[in-house]
Amino acid sequence: MEHQDWESIIVKIQNPPKTDDKKNNYVKSKESKLEEQVEEGKLSHKKMDSNYGKALQKKRLSKGMTQKDLAKRINVPFKMINEIESGKAKHNGQLMNKLNRVFQ
C-alpha cells in the first residue's frame, strides 16, 4: 500500500453562521414543526364526525347487521365500529372508504 496517500485534512469553520428563521425565510422541517407543537401543547388527533357515526349506525341497522358482523366484514376489531358510532374514534380515511363500499 505504498502507492496510497493517506493524509488527513481537517476543515474548521471559525464562526458558523447564525440562522434566524424569520430573517432568512427558513423553511421548517416536519420534525421541527412537530417539536414546536409538542412544546406548546397543541397536539391533538382529529376525531371522526359524530354525524358520520350516527349515519353509519342507521345504515347498519337497516341492513340488519350487528357491530360484530360489520367488523368481521371489513376485517377490523369490533371496538373500532363501536368507537366510530359513539364519535370517539380517530379520523381514518381508509376505514371510512371500506365502510362506504360495504353500504353501497
| Largest β sheet strand count, sense and barrel closure | none
Strand content: under 5%
Low-confidence stretches: none
CATH architecture of the domain at 50-102: Orthogonal Bundle
Q: Supply the helix-strand structural class.
A: mainly alpha
Global outline: elongated
**Which superfamily, in CATH terms, is the homologous superfamily of the domain at 50-102?**
lambda repressor-like DNA-binding domains
Multimer state: single chain
- Overall mean pLDDT: 83
DSSP helix fraction: 40-55%
Spatial gap, N to C terminus: 73 Å
The helix-strand sequence is HHHHH
Briefly, what CATH class of the domain at 50-102?
Mainly Alpha
Number of discrete helical segments: 5
Annotated CATH topology of the domain at 50-102: 434 Repressor (Amino-terminal Domain)
- Estimated radius of gyration: 27 Å
Number of strands: 0
Question: How would you summarize this macromolecular structure in one to three sentences?
Answer:
With 104 residues, the protein is mainly α. The protein has a domain of 53 residues: lambda repressor-like DNA-binding domains (434 Repressor (Amino-terminal Domain), Orthogonal Bundle).
Describe this structure in words.
By secondary structure, the chain is an all-alpha fold. The longest helix has 13 residues, at 50-62. The mean pLDDT is 83. The protein has a domain at 50-102: lambda repressor-like DNA-binding domains (434 Repressor (Amino-terminal Domain), Orthogonal Bundle), CATH 1.10.260. Helix 2 packs across helix 4 (78-86) and helix 3 (67-74) crosses helix 4. The chain is elongated. The protein is built from 5 helices and no strands. Helix content is 49%, strand content 0%.
